[in-house]
Amino acid sequence: MTTTPEDSNEFKPDDVGDSATPPTNNSPTENPSTESSGAYYSGQQGFPPAPRPGQSADDSLQRIQLNGWLSAFFGIIPALIFFVIDKERSNPLVRDFHQQTLNFSIIRAIIGLLAFVPVIGWVIGVLGGIICFVIAIMAAVKAPDEYQAGRAYKYPFNFAFVS
Questions:
Q1: Could you read off the pLDDT of 40-69 as tens digits, one per residue?
Q2: Where do the domains of the chain lie?
Q3: Residue 54 class from Cβ within 10 Å (0-12 exposed, 13-18 middle, 19+ buried)?
Q4: 114 closest CA partner among 89, 139, 131
Q5: In this structure, is the dihedral angle defined by the CA atoms of residues 92, 95, 99 and 105, taken in order, positive or negative?
Q6: Which helix (DSSP H) or strand (DSSP E) does residue 89 occupy?
Q7: How far apart are CA 11 and CA 13, in angstroms?
């Protein structure tokens, strides 16, 4: 079957045989796709922008996210580990976040210890534990955004046990 240049992109079922699916246009200007190397185009929907050549990813944001989520679910141990490991980091926002997280985790531990006191401690432990868990999750969600904006994240209530 011969086609003219005007109707070359037109779908005709007998062009493909028995299949009723239209052919795909794989031109790079209209539909960018992944290459065989697995790389993707920057700005393609659903993918983060590709790093520029020679540019390394900032691991501070990843450390803040990891510390926030691990501390929310596992308490004081991850907060203490990140605080000790990143204590000498040059970025004051990262140090401040790890310090804030450790201080808040100490508060959570104290509330957890209060749960061993009969009756009144049980009430304080359960209610305080739930409230602190929700605040820790909120911090894990909001802190990376604050870091990217160049601001330090502050917990709604916190005491300076570690400075």
A1: 444 445 444 444 444 344 788 888 999 999
A2: 60-148
A3: exposed
A4: 131
A5: positive
A6: none
A7: 7
